């Protein structure tokens, strides 16, 4: 995977290996613990149950994306993973078309309502993306202990470098429910397509058009 070494400086953005998935899941769990969508979809008043559901959902989704050869990018300093980004293409059935084995694993990990919320979120994003050749930035996170170092920007840059190398893909969309996240994407060339409500959670659907498609 090509990256801008000058931009990334001492950091490297590479595809994850199977051995990286456990650490990636931990980074995502901590980063998304207070995410409005997951709180609304998974939290029913019991914090320990919510955390168990969130861990299970992230673990199952990462494993599914790995098995389906989707794009999992890690940001490393030496051997230490600092951040992770997961991009799904619409070649993988999403939303209402999700595979039954995925649905079953999610049902076991999170319950029926939470699984339905995940499916509805994807279906809503697919409905509003510009074409059926767009990727979705499913997860993007920097380890909480590595915050405020500009690593979020470096991780977004790695995603854009990857996107620009995919001539068959029109671009990448992301749903941002927090203003500072939407701002970060906007600073890197994402444009807001539409304000969406995923359940009761309001956010912006932003889209980056790959360089080959401008």
TrEMBL record:
Cited Pfam families: Acetyltransf_1 (PF00583)
Alphabetic keyword roster: Transferase
GO MF term (any one): acyltransferase activity, transferring groups other than amino-acyl groups
N-acetyltransferase domain location: 67-190
SUPFAM superfamilies: Acyl-CoA N-acyltransferases (Nat)
Lineage: superkingdom: Bacteria
Name assigned to this protein: Acetyltransferase, GNAT family protein
Gene3D superfamilies assigned: 3.40.630.30
